[in-house]
Amino acid sequence: MAMGTRRHRQRQEELWCRRDLAEAPGHPFYKKLDEVLEKAGFDEFCEAHCRQFYHEKLGRPSLAPGMYFRVMLIGFFEGIESERGIAWRVADSLCLRQFLQIGLDERTPDHVTISRTRRLMDEATDQEVFGWVLRQVARAGLLARLSKRPSVSPGLAPRNKRPLPRIQLVGEL
User: Fold this and answer.
1) Which domain holds residue 43?
2) What's the total number of domains in the chain?
3) First CA to last CA distance, the chain
4) Is residue 39 over pLDDT 90?
């Protein structure tokens, strides 16, 4: 499978009348998280660390690594325990579409695509990317505290099923 990148997805938006588009104010946490990740170069970081799992030219372009990890972060932060649940939540939320930078005229990733992309990555890459994200989020002050209560979210749990610590988010930013 060839690696999709954020750069290849960039395109000119279609012309729409503003009054015809659905809008959501967005969640302050996801707005701030998006700013933190963009400033830190999250998509480039993910593409560099995941390049080894993709073929240069063969196969259809996959879910971009940055989008895949953002989808998994949604599952982690919202406590969604299945890839189907994450896919449903993303498809149902305008706020999360904004966070993932998916236009209203684009399809959101389905659970099969999320699952296939997840199987490409190894545990070390998952841990490295999620650890990097948590450090960025902590530096930005988006975490209230880390607790020792285990998470059972399969989207972020290591492949050996060791639980990750749950995170309590800062309320309104």
Assistant:
1) 24-169
2) 1
3) 39
4) yes
* pLDDT 10s digits, 92-146: 988 899 899 888 888 899 999 888 888 888 888 989 999 999 899 888 887 764 4
Q: Is residue 77 part of a domain?
A: yes
Tokens linked to 19: 């009054």
Judged by DSSP in three states, 75 sits in helix
Q: Is the pLDDT of residue 169 over 60?
A: no
Show Cβ contacts of residue 157 under 8 Å, excluding neighbours closer than 6 positions.
151, 163, 164
17 assigned to some structural domain: no
pTM over 0.90: no
Partnered with residue 162 across adjacent β-strands are none
* CA separation, residue 47 to residues 12, 52, 121, 142, 162 (Å): 22, 9, 12, 24, 25
Rounded to an integer, what distance in angstroms lies between the CA atom of residue 114 and that of residue 98? 18
How far apart (Å, rounded) are the C-alpha atoms in residues 114 and 173? 30
The answer as to whether 48 is a domain residue is yes
14 part of a folded domain: no
